[in-house]
Amino acid sequence: PIVLVGSSYSASLALLIAKDNPKVRAVAAFSPGEYFDGIDIQSEISGMSTAVFVTSSKKETPGVETLVSEIDPNNVTHYKPEVAGIHGSRALWSTTKGNEAYWEAFSSFLEEHLGTK
Hints:
The protein is of the alpha/beta class. The chain has helices spanning about 10-20, 40-45, 60-65, 100-115, and strands at about 1-5, 25-30, 50-55, 75-80.
């Protein structure tokens, strides 16, 4: 199975690619956002049916929630950190406070959608 993983700008690109590619089984998007002039990511990914894992820092959470709001909630796993967290996939780094909870959420998503951790 193909799983796209992106951080920041590449998280948004991963969502865009997965929207129209039936070969992609899942997307993990760490801190996706509206980073590109002339592209409305929220509109472009509206209605996508791919399994999506999204997360971000705590302060980015409302923006990420809005970004994925037009995707069926049954297809979205949105991990919202209780700690401040950090932008992008650095949330998984062992030096990031709260990384264990990010890992737990991400691993659970992978196990649910791919049968693996």
